[in-house]
Amino acid sequence: MNNILRINSSIVFLILTIPWAFKYFYPFTNYDWYMICSLIAYTLIFLWFLMLDSELTKRIPPKLRPSNTWFLINLFVLWLWICIAHIFFGPGHEFRVTGFAALPFLIPAFYFLFTMVSTYNHLSKLLTYAEEQQEVGLSNRIGEMVLFFFFFIGLWWLQPRIKKVLEKSEIVAEKYKSFRK
User: Fold this and answer.
1) How confident is the model at residue 53 (pLDDT cuts 50, 70, 90)?
2) What is the rounded CA–CA span in Å between residue 167 and residue 83?
3) Angle at CA 14, nearest 5°, toward 120 and 154?
4) Which of 10, 59, 62, 108 is positioned for an S-S bond with 173, CB 3.0–4.6 A?
5) Is 164 left (phi over 0), alpha (psi -120 to 50) or beta?
6) pTM of the prediction?
7) What b/e readout covers 40-51, taking b as 16+ CB neighbours within 10 angstroms?
8) Are 56 and 9 in contact (CB under 8 A)?
C-alpha cells in the first residue's frame, strides 16, 4: 500500500478521475454503465482514503494516534449511502416531499454531512499529526479539510505532503514492557 500512495500526483489524479470522466463525458445509453462507473469512482477514492489512514497511522506516535473506528464506520456508511443513491435515484428520476413528510429525510441527510466532515477531519488530523509529530488543533487543520473536500484540486497539494510523510520510518509501538532494569 505504501508504494501506491507514493505515486506521482498526476498519475493518482488520472487513476481517480478516469471513472469520473467516463461517467460525465461519455454518453451512456444504458444507465447501468453510468451506475457502474459511479460506483467504481467512489470505491477508488474510498480505497485511497483507507490506504491513507493505514499508512499515516503508522507514522504517528502511539500517544497521539487517534482511533479510526468512527472513520471506518463513517466511510462505510458514506460508501453505502452513495451506492444506494446511485441504484435508486438515476438521472431523470425525482421525487418531491414537502412539509412534515420531509422530516424523516432530514436526519439521514444531516448524518451524511456529518460523515463527510468527520472523514475529512480524520484524514487531516492524521496528515498533520504525522507531519508535526504533535497534536495540532482544529483551527490549524481547516485548510487540509478543505483540500480533502475539494479532493481533485486538493490532491495536487496533498500528495507531495503525503509522499514526504511516507518517507519517514514507521513508529512501532512496544508490544511488551518489562519492569526489570
Assistant:
1) very high
2) 35
3) 30
4) 62
5) alpha
6) 0.83
7) ebbebbbebbbe
8) no
